[in-house]
Write a structure and sequence with these properties.
By secondary structure, the chain is an alpha+beta fold. It contains six helices and eight strands; from the N terminus they run E-E-H-E-E-H-E-H-E-H-E-H-H-E. The strands form three sheets. A four-stranded mixed beta sheet has the order 7-6-5-8, sandwiched between helices. Strand 1 (23-25) and strand 2 form a beta hairpin. The longest helix has 19 residues, at 152-170. 14% of the residues are buried.
């Protein structure tokens, strides 16, 4: 269950509309959003969002997990959610990145170490490249673990030149997510649980 933009909560907010052209972003496609719309819903550079296709269009909402329901979505008597059944999970087979991607990850780790020094606690590849399922349109998803995370947007800006240079050099769009070491160790979220299952250390 995610925090989402609900039309019932839009009273007093301007119903802004904007025309945007789909454009190339690295090896992917994307659109830019006006600052006033982003500000109205508390979105800023570096905010993690969920994008879903729905019948009426595309829904973009902050990807903050606030609760977890059992898989069947049913509730126990008295309205309390039943505790989720323990799932039997198997760790997927670790696949070694290609020589080119391995080289990119090494350069990225060296560059991040220069920027952060001892603050850098880990760098992992996850997503399609970690699973060996990438194609020509795939981004290279990386998780950057820092000792602390005070201002997410500041870390995006700090690493921008390094990531842009490597993306151009290797012809791969690098998508990075930052987490604190404490969250990586103990925070419970659907996103981090998935990354932990498939993460390949750089």
């Amino acid at each position: 269950m995610y925090n989402s933009i609900d039309s019932s909560n839009m009273a007093g907010r301007a119903m802004a509309r904007a025309l945007r052209q789909v454009t190339a972003v690295g090896n992917s496609l994307g659109v830019t959003l006006p600052r006033d719309i982003l500000k109205a819903y508390g979105l800023a550079r570096g905010t993690l969002v969920e994008v879903r296709a729905i019948r009426s269009g595309i829904l973009i909402s902050p990807a903050t997990v606030i609760s977890v329901l059992p898989r069947d979505g049913r509730r126990a008597a008295g309205g309390a959610a039943r505790p989720p059944r323990p799932a039997v999970t198997t760790r997927p087979e670790r696949r070694r990145p290609s020589a080119s991607i391995a080289s990119l990850l090494r350069e990225l780790k060296v560059g991040l170490a220069r920027l952060y020094g001892v603050r850098l606690k880990g760098l992992y590849c996850y997503g399609s490249y970690a699973r060996g399922e990438q194609d020509l349109e795939s981004d290279l998803d990386v998780l950057v673990i820092l000792d602390r995370l005070d201002h997410y947007g500041a870390e995006v800006d700090r690493t921008g030149p390094l990531v842009s240079a490597l993306s151009l050099e290797y012809g791969v769009s690098i998508s990075r997510v930052f987490v604190s070491a404490q969250d990586w160790r103990s925070r419970r979220s659907a996103f981090l649980a998935n990354v932990r299952r498939e993460a390949v250390p750089a």
